[in-house]
Amino acid sequence: MGDTELEISPAQLEELQKSPSASSTSTTSSLSLPSSPSSGPRPSSSPSTSEGLPTSSPPLDVISEGVGEPILVIDTEVAKKACQEVLQKVKFLKADGEVSSASSEPVLVNGTSHPESTNGRKPPKISEEEAEPLKNVRCRQKNNSSKQSLLLRLFESKLFDISMAISYLYNSKEPGVQAYIGNRLFSFRNEDVDFYLPQLLNMYIHMDEDVGDAIKPYVVHRCRQSISFSLQCAWLLGAYSSDMHISTQRHSRGTKLRKLILSDELKPSSQRIRREMPQPPPSCPPPLHHCQGMSGHSLSPSKRTHQRSKSDATLSISLSSNLKRTASNPKVEACQDEDLSSSSDSLELEAGTPVRLTPQREFIKSLMGIGKRLATLPTKEQKTQRLISELSLLNHKLPARVWLSTAAFDHHVVRVPHTQAVVLNSKDKAPYLIYVEVLECENFETSSVPVRIPETRIRSTRSVENLPDCGITPDQRASSFSTVPNYDNDDEAWSVDDIGELQVEFPEIHTNSCDNISQFSVDSITSQESKEPIFIAAGDIRRRLSEQLAHTPTTFKRDPEDPSAVALKEPWEEKVRRIREGSPYGHLPYWRLLSVIVKCGDDLRQELLAYQVLKQLQIIWEQERVPLWIKPYKILVISSDSGMIEPVVNAVSIHQVKKQSQLSLLDYFRQEHGDFNTEEFLTAQRNFVQSCAGYCLICYLLQVKDRHNGNILLDSEGHIIHIDFGFILSSSPRNLGFETSAFKLTSEFVDVMGGLDGDMFNYYKMLMLQGLIAARKHMEKVIQIVEIMHQGSQLPCFHGSSTIRNLKERFHMNLTEEQLQVLVEQMVDGSMRSITTKLYDGFQYLTNGIM
């Protein structure tokens, strides 16, 4: 306060302690207060004492100087502030007494000391030497209180996002902070939290109990809401727990939570309970009183304050009557004709039957089993034939309440075009690519599963004249959709008892069918049946002819050693149209085509880590408006040695390009996109430069190895896409560290950019510099993704103790932008001249035939 000064000398403090009766006078006499603007006398009473004990205290709005002295009346607010200043000064004495183990402080009322708490003993005298460390203690207390206040303000601000929440959850040692963050997870969007799900579950498995207790309520709540989330958690918990010793793994928290999820105890409540307690909006976070550790400005630890109430069960959805469509339990099938939603007994049966997760688990298990059986066959031809046969059997179990987790929309799988599946290139294993027909729906957990349309009705004709309708009129198709019995019941869809009675179709590779008829034939038939004349302007004809003469896109030939080349080269739009025309479900309006790569025997946890880093860098570059292009593809980890990958459509490997076309990369570009000066070529060249710069930075920051031409794709628009991140950070093929360059930049890449003196090559280097500057501005967001997964991990990419430190150093936070430019020039020059890159490409050609 500007008008009030409070100075207490050591002599006055000693006098204050000795004489209770004088303390009031000595303290108040040192106050210099302005006179109150209010006039008119007020009654006042001076404090009277009896045997040293006060009988009354003066009110806060009146301070008297003495019995025989004139009364000074001041404003109430000024008096309160003055008393607060006095109390602040006297609190210093209390801190002194606590640290020096002295007797308890005198009770202070309105600045007056009372000796009743001292029992007649005089408090010890504090020397100046002892007072110095006590001041430091008080400063630290004030700083801690200030930090806690600022931390709470940060947590409640709009700037606090999921990335910051994960960072504080990992780095904070305060259980109160961890509990608060655990509750704040409910306020973020599900999609934002799902991105960090590997980090959350890895912390739950490998970090201390307080972190696990903070995370578990959110995971349990989401598992009650979603079957997909439940399975994803169960798979990740199993995969990340596999690094633990077997004896520890059995009794770990991760294993217990995984068993809880798979036991289906976290099922949603019935509709009867949900009617009684309405569901709050998902965007509304739970009240903060669940976590008392963060109340006010205090961060006191409290383990149990953040536990979610049992009413969380009411926040999840109910499968209601649709459960009968996916039941693997005969009891549920027996109730098919009953209305489950109208009977309380049926609801109890529904809640007690562990069938929520069964169909999807069995579907994934079937796909993984196919991959394991393929790996035992010696040749690609045999693997392809076996794959087609196995998928043909799988089709007899579809449609069902199953889905592909790599898709971005809700759907039901209705059919797998088995003749379109291909085995991918792999020396020891048998990854395979399948195309999956799905019907988009509102909610795959509650929407009705479509009835089955028999495949035989499509196969009844192979006549070329009837291919557009495949022998079925629109009326027949409509009637067959409504009359065919439903095969989605798990007893019919997922049992193998009836497989022996089915005739498995072994397709001939060269046989024309609705699934593998060439698009050219279909287009020709469609044009012949067209009755209406088509008028085309002469200018359009000249333009189309000139474009066709300028470049003719290549078509790959069938290669028994590489059956995937033809399938991957076919444009996606043509593939979708061709498969839809041959599908019994193709006439439905919500029909979609998806694709997925199934891998067995490979640990995809590193692939998932690389996907997260690529996705984070993609977001950073978009925020900073740096026109770098990368294509992160989704990864689904099933276990520590199996999973599924989202394929990159309209893309083939550079190895396949060179093998099929027998051209250099630049000549292939000209053949695909036209001559140098055409707009299409210049657009493809720009796409190539932007993607090459982006992936060069990715390869440098993550130290991606095994960069042969089989692991670099080229899409139809000119972008390059790096795949297979099995060797990143501290790992390399056979741990030899043979590839020493910062990234792969061959002379062929430079030729496509226009040569060393071309403008596009300078543009490439400028993009590299801009991308690195933008990435280091947000370095912590990238580092925390990797650092959290390092916890308790035995992955090869984390071998050694310096993995995280080396990653941080590659961001070069200590360099200026001018120094970064020099660094980029050196890396580009060194990568172009790298002899190890050329030797490694030669080694791959000699050993694996990769060009």
UniProtKB/TrEMBL annotation:
Cofactor requirements of the protein: Mg(2+); Mn(2+)
Cellular location(s): Mitochondrion outer membrane; Rough endoplasmic reticulum membrane
Catalytic activity: a 1,2-diacyl-sn-glycero-3-phospho-(1D-myo-inositol) + ATP = a 1,2-diacyl-sn-glycero-3-phospho-(1D-myo-inositol 4-phosphate) + ADP + H(+)
Class of enzymatic activity (EC top level): transferase
Biased composition range(s): Pro residues: 278-288
Gene Ontology, cellular component aspect: mitochondrial outer membrane; rough endoplasmic reticulum membrane
Protein name (record): Phosphatidylinositol 4-kinase beta
UniProt organism field: Carassius auratus
